[in-house]
Every structure is written in C-alpha cells, then in structure tokens.
Amino acid sequence: MSKINRRRFIKNTAMISLGLSTMVYPQDKQSSQNKIINEKEYLKEILYTRREVDDWLANKAFPFSKYHSEFGWLLNNAHFRDGIDNSMSTYTYIGDDGERLMSNYKEKTCRINTYGNSYTQCHQVSDHETWQEVLAAHLQEPVRNFGIGGWSLYQAYLRMLKEEQRSPAEYIIFNIYHDDHRRNLDAWRNIHARKHPQHIEAPLPYVKVNLKEEKIEECPNPCPTPESLYDLCDLEKAWELFKDDFVLKIMVAHRNAGTKNPYQSYSDIMSLALTHGINTEIENSETLSAVAERLHQRAAVFSSEKIIEKIELYAKKNNKKVLYVLSYPAYCFAQYVNEEKRWNDHLKKQLTSSRKLKYVKGGHRWDQPFVDFMISKNLPFVDLIECHKKDFQNYNLDIKTYSEKYWVGHYNPAGNHFCAFVIKNKLVEMMDPKPFPYL
What pTM value is reported for the model? Predict the structure, then answer.
C-alpha cells in the first residue's frame, strides 16, 4: 500500500461517525479556550448558517445526504473518491427511501432485508461490492440493503417498520455499529458530532431514556419540515428545542471538565445522574468527565436493549426471524486484541480526540453490557470483533497490517467479503427452506 493511501487509511479510520464526521469531545476546544460554558453557549457554537441550510436543501452542499422529515436524512446518488487505493466509489439508491442498488438475483423473490448504518450501507465500496451482494451471489438469492450512513439503531428500527409494509422479507438482518447505541439518544447529531463538508449532521428521531424507571420514550424528528431546519440558525429557537437535551448536558460537562473549577457542571451532572437512579459524588474534573461518560454509556446501551425488545416483538407478531450483526472500526478491533499502545500512538495525531480511544481498551469493550444482554436473551448475533480476533490468529501479521487487509475507514471489498461469509453461517442456520446451495 502506498504512503499516500496509508495516510488515507488512518484519516478515514478516524472519521468513524459516518466515515465522514468526527466526534466532538472536550479536548477539541480546550486547546483554544479554557472557559467554562453553559448549554446555551455551547449551542451558539454549533448553529447552522442560513446559507448552509439553503445549500443543503437545494443539494448544493453536503452531498452525502439529503433532508428527510421522518428519518432526518437519506443518501444521495454519488461518486466519492473514498475507496481502496484511492479509487472512486459509486453509490446508487433507488425507491422512495433510497434502497441501495441490488444486482445479484434481483429477479427472484427476496427473503432477506438488511437494516442499519454505514456498515450496512457499505460506505467506501461501490454498489456491487457490498457484503449484501457477496452474500446474494453465494446464496443465489437477492438481499436488500436499506442501510444509511450515520443512522442509529432507532432510525433503522423505524425504517424497518415502514419498509416491511412495502417490501416484506421473512429474514431481517440488523447491523449495529458500536456507536449506534449513543446515536439513539441524539436529537440533533451536531451536538456531539461536527459538520463535515459532505454531511451537515442533521436532527433526527431519537429516544429519551429514564434509567431509574427502566423505560424509553420515542421522539420524532424535532425539525419535521424543511422550514424548521432554519430554527437551528437562531439561538433562541434552538435553545427552546434543546435546553433540556440529555446529550447536550453530557457534552457540556465534558467540555467543562477541562476548565478550572467547573462547579456548576458538578451540580448539573450529579442531578442528571440522580434522575437516572445513579447516586454519585463528583469531586474533581476527572470525576466529572468519568461520571458523564458512564451515564452516557449506560443510557446508550439501555436504549438499544429496549429497541431490540421492540424489534423482537415486531418479528414475533409478523412471523419474521432476525439476525443481529455487531460491527466495529479498525481501531476498536486493534485495541480489543490488546495491542492498543502501539495502535494508539499511531492514531493519536490523526484522531480529533484521543478520548475516542477509551471506547475499547486492551481486551475490554465498552459495549460488553449490550453483548451480555444479547446472550441473556438468547438472540442470534454475529460479533464481528470476535470474528476478526479469531481470524487474526491465523496470520503472522502485526495489527496495522492485518487491519489494512479489511478496512479503509469502513470495510474495503475484502472486508465486505469477510463480513458476508461470517454472517452466512448463522443466516443459513435460520433459513427454511435453505438457500439453493445448501439444499
């Protein structure tokens, strides 16, 4: 791999939110300011300009996505130079809500629909290189792709409810990226992820979590019309929409943790924790950030657990079988196999925030409670981080060289092939009648 492409690999690995955008954490701003801020001041920093909204709605800017009143955004047909070896990837979407182009065995009845995020959409490979098309070619029957980059599990669930009325399938695959749990809680993605030249990080449908009462509340897109997007250009209107937002409070706490004497945030986060049934004391900035992070993680995982319960209830009522796939970026895999120091040193200069490296550290994974939940419910799932760990043991390679085999930010064509064939075994077990190759 060329030096140029190695740099692109690292850059794309860092852009994990969509393969496009990066998370905003307190260190992002602390180099330029050391000032305690409140929620309203935070919102003021992230407002859209009217020109940005104009251009997005007119398809003159942010070409990755387009506005959608229910889901927040869908994807545009596009050519991006983001593929393996600096190649051009072609993205084609069809139908009312942008199903990705299907080719293999499309003339046959489709029994398999797939939902999820950019690892479902298969960002950074062209239409016919997706894991769905690899799987379809092998099973000799079509596989639909309803994935959308940057989506949460909740958005994917809502799309399933809609698409299964129009294009039903007996077998459903949900791909859950490691950040999808947090995304469930986002009312406006720009609160915790920066705008990128290709994507505006728009408002979206989300869930509110009450950990103390063990329930979630489903909430629609807070900007349900194109005109309402302009509220995000006005501080007072944006403040009315998001002044009580859970994620906003978490992000402000992280920002203030790096300042001197952020006592107001101590009080705010302790109050938020108590609301969620967590009794804690915050003694210093480090404790403040740790409590905020723990609260964010617990709420995020709990939200996914409740959404999974909704998916399973829907599947039972409608005689469908669901297979879940857990997806991860290369750096999470590298850390999971306990080579995080060398990998972290390699990435720190590339990542906007080294805080991201704490998601998975040295054989530990922050989403372990969610994995435990899936096991406790006896739900069929494919854990790609474990699949890669097993595969890695077959090679005499360092972790960076191994990762470059499969990832170019998202999966490259070889990564999609790997994904298809580790999914295949579980899927074929579930199918009745079996696909033709397994009759």
Answer: 0.90
